[in-house]
Amino acid sequence: MARKDSSGPVIDIGIDDKQRKAIAEGLSRLLADSYTLYLKTHNYHWNVTGPMFNTLHLMFEAQYTELALAVDLIAERIRALGVYAPGSYAAFAKLSSIEESEKVPNATDMIADLVKGQEAVVRTARKIYPLASKADDEATADLLTQRIQLHEKTAWMLRSLLE
Q1: Is residue 3 a part of any domain in this protein?
Q2: What is the spatial distance between Cα 19 and Cα 135, in angstroms, rounded to a whole number?
Q3: Mind listing the pLDDT tens digit for each residue in 72-102?
């Protein structure tokens, strides 16, 4: 049964406290991965050069814009579960499976790096899905399904540029 804890009032949404917190922890990792990928994509948007500049500049802009919306949805789902969402670079660095990029690679390496980032987000989302499914947390499962589908498609589109 839901009970009051240090994070606030009773939360009784049909998901027990332990499952709710485990799902929120997984979503926090997804948020960190998504935010790190957002930052990396935005960096590459600013710094891409070469013959594919216009194409990549616009593609990266569309991708980081989508990620900016996604991080808000993920953070709001964490809050709906009654847990505070991480929101600092330090927290994201601890939680993310995606390494920051401190260099400015060439355009081809940017694309390859973003493929890896998109795939990392998919793997993180897949790890959370069984928790949401077991808890009958349809809202989180739906969010995860949408994120998986979008990141798989984006990875495919980026990968196609490398062929």
Answers
A1: no
A2: 6
A3: 999 999 999 999 999 999 999 999 999 988 8
